[in-house]
Amino acid sequence: MQEPLQLLIELQEIERKIKILAEDKARAPKEIAALEEKKREAETRLEEKKVVLESAMKSRRDLEREVEDLEGRKAKSKQKLLEVKSNKEYQATLKEIDDIGELVRGREDKIIEQMESADALDSQIREHKLLVAEAIKKLEEEGAQLEKEAKKADSLMLILEEQMEQLKPKIPSDLLKKYQFLRDKRAGVALAPVQSGTCGVCHMSLPPQLFIDLQRNETMMNCPNCLRIIYWTGHEAYKQSSQPE
Ligand SMILES: [Zn+2]
Questions:
Q1: CA 208 – ligand 1 centroid, Å
Q2: Mean pLDDT of the chain
Q3: Rounded distance, CA 105 to CA 98, Å?
Q4: How many CB atoms lie within 10 A of CB 182?
Q5: The listed CATH number (1.20.810.10, 1.10.287.1490, 3.30.70.3270, 3.40.190.10) that belongs to domain 14-169
Q6: What are the φ and ψ backbone dihedral angles of 89, each rounded to 5 degrees?
Q7: What is the pTM of this model?
Q8: Ligand 1: distance of its center to the CA of 169 in Å?
Q9: Residue 245 — pLDDT band, cuts 50, 70, 90?
């Protein structure tokens, strides 16, 4: 068994876990920002509906005032009817009363329309209030969950970093440098497990003799294609490390 290789496998595994935790942590603020944006959108839609309702109510009040005025005029005209002297004047006043009645009916129709649309707006506002409440609840719940996960990730990361610091001095420094060089040049993965004669990262089949040599586990070897340090997962010492979690 090659101890340095086993240490490298451990190191790569620790680094992989740290990377995943860091990525998860980086995602959290974005997820919270997206939830906040959804909440803001819901609030904006609610405010818009409220504005529409207010203006509908204002125009209804205006119409009601107009109706009052018209009714006042109609009452005066009716009063006048009792005082007119000529038939012509009588007819003209009757027409006046009729015309005012027509104007009143027109406004009352509009008032009914406004009442109906206010009802519809009321129920829309109720729906939007629910949506806002849902968005707030989701933000609070998921925000708390993400915060909890971030804290957990932080403490896990501390443990892993400590493990890494303990591990590094055990690895020969030239080998550690080689590992770090490969890791930086090869998308963060310096070691490749080999299963059934195939490189587990670049998926190239190893030449048969190379695979046989690898199984002997005597020297450190590299994948001829991706140049990563390879190890055979069938070997007892590396089995544990190559298992996905
Ligand atoms: Zn490879």
A1: 14
A2: 93
A3: 11
A4: 20
A5: 1.10.287.1490
A6: -65, -40
A7: 0.69
A8: 27
A9: very low
